[in-house]
Structure prediction request, 218 residues.
Amino acid sequence: MHQVQMSHAKETYPVGKIICLGQNYLDHIRELGSKVPDRAVIFCKPPCSLLANGGVIEIPEYSNDCHHELELALLVGKTGKHIQEKDALSYLAGYGVALDLTLRDIQSEQKSRGLPWEIAKGFDTSCPISDFIPADKVSDPNNLELKLKVNGDIRQHGNTNQMMRSVEKIVAEISNFFTLETGDIILTGTPAGVSRIQSGDHLEGTIEQVGSLQVSVA
Ligand code: MG
Prediction:
């Protein structure tokens, strides 16, 4: 995928950087047995990790434990650096439904050795993503229900009001590290309930006011 689509419009955006925030929901930090980080946990996925709605996830053969992480995605609409929280929402063109697929076994191994996570989180198809809904269609991005079903069973059910960092704070903080540019995508972290997916599973993620995402596992 080299571009993402705005739903209800013909507009497309060239894909830029995909920047992800980790450990943004307390209940998810607890389920992994991690400590609350004292600064934002930020990592990137390459553009070839994107998978369009309706696509097929390919779990790499070097892992036996691929987890789903349902996340609100932000689409950046204009360039900014050192963005103030009060201005942050004006930099967003839209909101989408994303999965931050994670090879938990590989991630744990990399963490324990002090190594980067990209091979656990940036593999091809590790970032299924829906079309984006224009930002003005979402009343409050910090109060949206998220739900992920696997084969019809609810696995994750949360609300963006449980995020430790608000959407505004995430945009402001990330823009201190990276210049944000049109077409950049930001993933905002996952609530509790992450678990293993396997061949043949069907995943359906929905976020209130934003839309839905359906993918399956090869
Ligand atoms: Mg995540």
Remarks:
- Residues 20, 22, 69, 71, 100, 189-190 surround magnesium ion (CB under 6 Å).
- The chain has a mean pLDDT of 96.
- DSSP finds four helices and 18 strands in the chain.
- Residues 19 and 44 are 5 Å apart (CA to CA).
